[in-house]
């Protein structure tokens, strides 16, 4: 049976070997590859103000833990897990959350906009507009989507960031955030539903109104 490290692509294994040898060029490469995504994930959990501090702590944790990295996952997934752990630790330290369970919720019941496999039950009717007005509103809509994602409860926001923007697999997301597959489905469903409502409202009124 192949070991976990054999599942990694050769360039990544070589990069990890260079990191273990304390190759400064390798460190700079990893930072260029993952810094922005790590910060984006940190923002979803702790907000913009202390996200940089969380990422800095994550890099320090990575350096300390690197000799023990068993390559059971990709380097990216491992780094994201470190960021998530640092962010949740910082939340506890700041006493900004009573429990991680509270990070997951923030909205009431679900509706039927999505099926159990995460696909749309029905496509928003106005998303295919290509009028000049619709084209002009694209930048505003992107900004509204960003505001909406950042307004979600932290774990919902993190799940949406990892799934839709980082293209992580469900297994990777569960590993990064230390959540169950069933919890992932609920979090993703709620986050997508909120995003759907916001986009639908924007398309109808031109107003960005993130769901409460």
Query: What structural class do you assign from the helix and strand content?
Result: mainly alpha
Number of strands: 0
Instruction: Count helical runs.
Output: 10
Largest beta-sheet characterization: none
On the 0-100 scale, what is the average pLDDT? 80
Gap between N and C termini, in Å? Answer: 49 Å
Approximately what portion of the residues adopt beta-strand conformation?
Answer: under 5%
Oligomer: single chain
Principal-axis shape:
elongated
The poorly predicted ranges are 1-5, 97-102, 106-114, 116-120, 122-129
Layout of helices and strands, plus pairs?
Layout: H1 10-20, H2 24-46, H3 51-65, H4 75-94, H5 100-104, H6 132-136, H7 138-151, H8 154-165, H9 170-177, H10 181-205
Helix pairs in contact: 1-2, 2-3, 2-4, 2-8, 3-4, 4-9, 7-10, 8-10
What labels describe this entry?
single chain, 212 residues, mainly alpha, Rna Polymerase Sigma Factor, Chain: A, Arc Repressor Mutant, subunit A, 10 helices, 0% strand, disordered N terminus
């Amino acid at each position: 049976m192949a070991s976990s490290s054999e599942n990694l692509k050769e360039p990544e294994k070589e990069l990890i070997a260079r990191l273990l040898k304390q190759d400064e060029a390798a460190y700079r490469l990893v930072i260029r590859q993952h810094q922005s995504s790590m910060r984006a994930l940190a923002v979803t959990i702790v907000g913009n103000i202390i996200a940089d501090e969380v990422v800095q702590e994550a890099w320090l944790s990575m350096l300390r833990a690197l000799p023990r990295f068993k390559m059971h996952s990709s380097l990216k997934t491992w780094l994201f897990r470190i960021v998530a752990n640092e962010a949740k630790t910082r939340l506890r330290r700041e006493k900004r959350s009573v429990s991680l369970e509270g990070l997951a919720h923030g909205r009431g019941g679900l509706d039927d906009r999505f099926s159990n496999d995460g696909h749309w039950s029905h496509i928003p009717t106005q998303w295919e507009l290509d009028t000049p007005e619709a084209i002009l509103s694209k930048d505003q809509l992107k900004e509204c989507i960003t505001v909406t994602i950042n307004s979600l409860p932290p774990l919902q926001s993190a799940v949406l960031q990892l799934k839709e923007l980082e293209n992580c697999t469900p297994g990777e997301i569960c590993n990064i955030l230390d959540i169950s597959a069933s919890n992932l489905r609920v979090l993703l469903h709620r986050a997508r539903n909120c995003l759907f409502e916001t986009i639908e409202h924007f398309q109808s009124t031109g107003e960005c109104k993130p769901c409460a």
